Amino acid sequence: MDLMLYKNEIEEELLRYSNQCVKENEYDYTTFGKEIEPILSEGLRFYFMSKFNFSESDFYEAPNKNHFPDFTLCREIAIEFKAAVYNRKPENDMGTINSWSSKLKEYGDNIYYIFVKYSTVNTYVNIEDVFFDKVYRFIGLNSAGFLRYREKDGNLRPKSWEDFDNAYTYCDSLMEFQEGLRKSESYRARRLVEKHFPDVSEEDRRIIKEKYFDN
After folding, report:
1. pTM confidence score
2. CATH class, range 3-212
């Protein structure tokens, strides 16, 4: 089932439904990213049940924040939820570089993300836009031309809101994403070596040289 065929419908329905749910409630913007998740999950269930006659048994929700994905459809389609405020560059975690091989092995090209762009006035929230797409179409690029990630842990990062609004992508296919992961993993490893190599003792440098370069 290719959900990209229903991309516009899903975005429109979730935008309508989520705004309807949040318009009269108050929220703490620091936790809104988690509070919107059950709303998105419920909106997806309503959409899929009315559009395709799915039943509750076709849906599975993550039991906790460490479980991937947030929402599963028919045990084969993974959907993750992300939200960020409109006037700041989104910095959501999108999985570490080295975690993606197992995710792709399990779900292949059936991994989608929902990004919610929202604004706040005091404690009230307005959903400015909802974006639905394959995961790799939401990932940003860093200044060196590799997938955008956080250096300390390799967590991938999204593209800018400007890229979202203009539907600009840096990876257009699963193959491009896999190649980007491979190159970015190597680039990050090299950066870490360069960063920490001055702290390596002469003895440890000798061991590294013998182990990796003299054979």
Report:
1. 0.93
2. alpha beta
